[in-house]
């Protein structure tokens, strides 16, 4: 029976690096991303049904009203992101272990919905100071944006106890191996 893997973390914790490594280097795990919905327009070469299902804000709201989402968020006005229950069910029925790379609230909601069929992992930076160093090192954010991300990260870290496992990403290789072990054990 296919299972679900939920991975959440504050921005800059290394979550995407770890998840992408697992999916690329460990094909034996049969991990597949859940294909989410968004109300934003496709970017570059993005295709409907591949990276996202692209909906209008009206279509998105209609699906919210119909309780079709496992989790969703309105990031900015009329800019929604969410995961459809039916899409996840289709992937599970196809034998895919579904991976969610989601924010902490979404992670907690998906875990609640699927219970023991899902395992949730929180990737935690060693400290807020280290997170600041990483975000500054990226060179992609303004100082103000970094402060906002750090404030959000401190809030998100309060959710860690609600997850099945917490992996501290102090050393990336070690965090990858620890995550691989947790996922392998869970899927067997």
| Alpha carbon gap, first and last residue | 10 Å
**Percent of sequence in beta strands:** 15-25%
Measured as a percent range, the helix fraction is 40-55%
The main sheet comes to: 5 strands, parallel
Strand order, largest beta sheet: 2-7-1-8-9
Tell me, briefly, the overall form.
Answer: globular
Reading the helices and strands in chain order gives EHEEEHEEHEHEHHEH
- Contiguous low-pLDDT stretches (5 residues minimum) are none
Radius of gyration: 17 Å
Number of helices: 7
User: What is the averaged pLDDT score?
Assistant: 93
Number of strands: 9
Structural class: alpha/beta
Quick recap of the structure?
The protein has helices at 15-25, 57-65, 85-93, 104-114, 128-138, 143-157, 172-187, and strands spanning 4-8, 31-33, 36-38, 52-54, 69-76, 79-84, 97-101, 118-124, 165-168. It has 188 residues and is of the alpha/beta class.
Describe the structure.
By secondary structure, the chain is an alpha/beta fold. Helices cover 44% and strands 23% of the residues. It is built from 7 helices and 9 strands. It has helices spanning 15-25, 57-65, 85-93, 104-114, 128-138, 143-157, 172-187; strands spanning 4-8, 31-33, 36-38, 52-54, 69-76, 79-84, 97-101, 118-124, 165-168. The strands form 2 sheets. A 5-stranded parallel β-sheet has the order 2-7-1-8-9, with helices on both faces. A 4-stranded mixed β-sheet has the order 4-3-6-5. α5 packs antiparallel against α6. It is globular and about 40 Å long.
